[in-house]
């Protein structure tokens, strides 16, 4: 409302003539007088004033270009994990025994100076008997055109539907290792695509656990205050005073070796979630402490609402947008945590493929020197973490009504 | 001030007790103990275990007692500086651990000093030159520091340091100093090797610190007293240093509470990659083989270090900021 008030004031100010020496002629507008003209809103203004909180957050977020871009990238990544069997040119465990530690192949689109269908140059393989080094040299004469929407390795889509259609695959009898192969001749690109399925969901599941814990514990502390609050505050301090990684290591070392990979996966997400909730719980608590003094809360109490209803129905929605922003900023920590644990060999184990498991192969300094492409799974890790950070920052700014 | 210090010290005691309970629970969670694993391993390879000796050891270390008595023995031992017995190495833990705790402390401490030294000028510059290209570049660099997993950075930096600077790979000193007593030459060698892990571990924390200092200082610079000071004709440097910087420094010190666990986590994983003689690789081994006393004392040491660090930062903060010590006195 203050915006309109100042606008009116400014208009009145400019109506005063600059030089008062020559008075303006008397003038009365013949149009009918509408006393509410100043208060009537244009349709655009009306939309703005009656917009719900979420709509306003969305409008603000849309202006944050980096956040929108990051959100799009994340959306694409999360959608792509639904179809990784289709997107990956090879199966995650397909071994190409003739191409062990093959370096990445470059895609060419020009041949003889003409634009052609994308192709790669086939490898000539030679074993250097002096250094026992595998040497792959691209042979310009072997033109292996990439096929699209083609039949390749068989797979079971999500373990259910049989299929063999891929987005792109190597030429018949040829190879296509855009990111090289590992020590068993498995295609890195395919493994990275499959790894996304685990790595990206570990963060989400872990955050879901943390989020529940944080809202529950922080909610109780913030709403009841007093002794409960003090006790919970101490608990949070204790959990926070543990360095996360050693604690994660200790907890994941507990997971029985006999567990199936799927159980280990859920175990790891649980462990990640059990430790990361403290910051969010603190945020929830301090917000609740401030909000429960508000009038609408007193009104609800007077009307006889129970605590669970007040917390859930009145208090949480008033800072839900803030919560979402914090949650977005929590996910990257979990993804990094899983990567670190798997890298150390304490997290997920090889039949499962996550980016951390892939990086486990790059544990050795020899890899940096000889097969640097084995470190490539770090690229999607970096992209994901940056994207979550940018999106979270954007969301936080958008959710802040005073910003 | 004294009241605050006493209060802060008293609060630490229940925290430490709770931490020791958690650590003890964790190391006792896996089914069986080191001996059951050990006997099973021997039997699997067709050897006979020396059951009499094992039984003696089990009794000696109280594995037949109820858990709460085991816990009391363990904590009682810790208070006397007796960290128990490492079955993996067949030596008392304090022997096995040796220099490692000291080196962990040195690495962590240096990293924090590094973080402050780097983050302070950069944060200051970024805030005073907001939206300049240098600010954007530094912000980008900071984000990259947050996003790159430090273990991988450690590998790459290690490789580069070896190829271009000829620093020996792995370890905190040149190999020939390994079993020598401490000397100046050895200390110099440690310093020459220290910078790689310090940069790698410190990068994430430094990036976070720069962002926080920049944000705080920007908030502070927009306040009215700064405008007043500038309008009075104070020199820009004085305007900056007299109040806004001091205000923005508060979180700088209190952040050590979140920085320290991060640094210690970083030390653990980076030291595994770089095979530093710190607690990391040994903790990993101990966890894998269920050597519970060894793992327990490492965890306890790391948590203890964090608690002490937070204590120091709280005290420093109280010494710097009168609001904090007065508030604490009033509330209790």
Features:
heterodimer; A: 403 residues; alpha+beta; three-stranded antiparallel sheet; two-stranded antiparallel ribbon; 16 helices; disordered N terminus; B: 332 residues; mainly alpha
How do you describe this structure in short?
The complex is a heterodimer of chains A (403) and B (332). With 403 residues, chain A is of the alpha+beta class.
Count of individual helical segments of chain A: 16
User: Which structural category fits the helices and strands of chain B?
Assistant: mainly alpha
Q: Which shape of chain A, going by the Cα principal axes?
A: flat
Strand order of the largest sheet of chain B: 1-2
Low-confidence stretches of chain A: 1-15
| Averaged pLDDT of chain A | 80
Identify the biggest protein-protein contact and residues per side.
Answer: A-B, 39 and 51 residues
Share of helix of chain B, binned: over 70%
**DSSP helix fraction of chain A:** 55-70%
Low-pLDDT stretches of chain B are none
For this structure, the quaternary state is heterodimer
Q: What structural class do helix, strand and pairing data of chain A support?
A: alpha+beta
Radius of gyration of chain A (CA) equals 30 Å
């Amino acid at each position: 409302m203050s915006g309109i008030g100042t606008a009116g004031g400014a208009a009145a100010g400019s109506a005063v003539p600059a030089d008062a020496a020559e008075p303006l002629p008397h003038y009365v507008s013949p149009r009918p007088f509408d006393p509410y003209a100043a208060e009537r809103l244009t349709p655009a203004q009306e939309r703005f004033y009656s917009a719900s909180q979420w709509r306003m957050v969305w409008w603000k977020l849309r202006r944050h270009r980096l956040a929108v871009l990051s959100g799009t990238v994340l959306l694409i990544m999360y959608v792509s994990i639904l179809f990784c069997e289709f997107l990956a040119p090879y199966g995650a465990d397909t071994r190409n025994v003739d191409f062990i530690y093959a370096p990445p192949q470059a895609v060419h689109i020009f041949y003889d100076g003409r634009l052609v269908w994308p192709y790669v140059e086939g490898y000539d393989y030679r074993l250097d008997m002096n250094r026992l080094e595998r040497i792959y040299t691209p042979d310009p004469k072997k033109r292996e055109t990439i096929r699209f929407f083609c039949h390749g390795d068989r797979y079971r889509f999500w373990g259910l539907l049989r299929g063999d259609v891929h987005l792109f695959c190597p030429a018949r009898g040829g190879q296509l290792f855009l990111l090289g192969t590992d020590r068993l001749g498995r295609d890195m690109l395919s493994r990275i695509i499959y790894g996304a399925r685990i790595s990206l969901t570990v963060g989400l599941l872990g955050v879901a656990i943390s989020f529940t814990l944080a809202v529950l514990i922080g909610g109780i502390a913030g709403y009841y205050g007093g002794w409960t609050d003090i006790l919970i505050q101490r608990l949070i301090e204790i959990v926070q005073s543990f360095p996360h990684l050693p604690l994660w290591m200790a907890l994941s070392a507990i997971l029985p070796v006999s567990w199936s990979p799927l159980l280990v996966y859920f175990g790891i997400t649980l462990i990640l979630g059990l430790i990361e909730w403290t910051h969010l719980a603190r945020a929830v608590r301090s917000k609740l402490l401030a909000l429960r003094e508000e009038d609408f809360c007193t009104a609800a109490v007077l009307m006889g609402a129970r605590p669970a209803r007040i917390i859930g129905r009145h208090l949480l929605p008033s800072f839900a947008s803030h919560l979402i922003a914090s949650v977005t900023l929590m996910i990257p920590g979990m993804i990094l945590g899983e990567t670190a644990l798997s890298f150390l060999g304490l997290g997920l184990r090889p039949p499962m493929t996550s980016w951390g498991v892939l990086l486990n192969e790059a544990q050795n300094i020899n890899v940096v020197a000889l097969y640097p492409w084995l470190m490539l799974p770090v690229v999607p890790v970096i992209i994901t973490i940056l994207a979550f950070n940018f999106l979270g920052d954007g969301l936080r700014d958008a959710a802040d009504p005073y910003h | 001030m004294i009241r605050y210090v006493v209060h802060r010290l008293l609060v630490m005691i229940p925290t430490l007790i709770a931490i020791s309970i958690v650590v003890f629970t964790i190391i006792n969670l896996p089914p069986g103990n080191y001996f059951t694993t050990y006997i099973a391993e021997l039997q699997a390879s067709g050897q006979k275990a020396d059951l009499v000796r094992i039984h003696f050891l089990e009794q000696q270390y109280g594995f037949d007692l109820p858990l709460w008595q085991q816990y009391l023995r363990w904590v009682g031992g810790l208070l006397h500086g007796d960290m128990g017995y490492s079955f993996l190495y067949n030596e008392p833990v304090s022997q096995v651990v040796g220099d490692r705790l000291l080196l962990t402390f040195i690495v962590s401490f240096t990293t924090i000093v590094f973080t402050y030294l780097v983050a302070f000028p950069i944060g200051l510059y970024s805030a005073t030159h907001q939206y300049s290209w240098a600010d954007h570049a530094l912000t980008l660099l900071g984000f990259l520091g947050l996003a790159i997993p430090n273990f991988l950075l450690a590998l790459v930096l290690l490789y580069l340091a070896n190829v271009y600077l000829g620093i020996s790979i792995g370890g905190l000193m040149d190999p020939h100093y390994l079993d020598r007593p401490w000397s100046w030459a050895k200390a110099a060698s440690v310093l020459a090797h220290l910078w790689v892990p310090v940069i790698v571990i410190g990068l994430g924390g430094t990036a976070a610190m720069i962002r926080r200092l920049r944000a705080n200082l920007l908030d502070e610079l927009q306040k009215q007293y700064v405008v007043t000071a500038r309008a009075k004709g104070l020199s820009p440097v004085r305007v900056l240093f007299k109040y806004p910087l001091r205000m923005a420094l508060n979180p700088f010190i209190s952040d050590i509470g979140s920085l320290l666990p991060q640094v210690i986590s970083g030390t653990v994983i980076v030291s595994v990659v770089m095979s530093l003689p710190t607690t990391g690789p040994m903790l990993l081994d101990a966890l894998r083989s269920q050597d519970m006393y060894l793992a327990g004392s490492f965890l306890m040491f790391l948590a203890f270090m964090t608690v002490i660090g937070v204590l120091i930062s709280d005290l420093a903060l109280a010494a710097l900021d009168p609001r904090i010590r007065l508030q604490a006195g009033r509330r209790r």
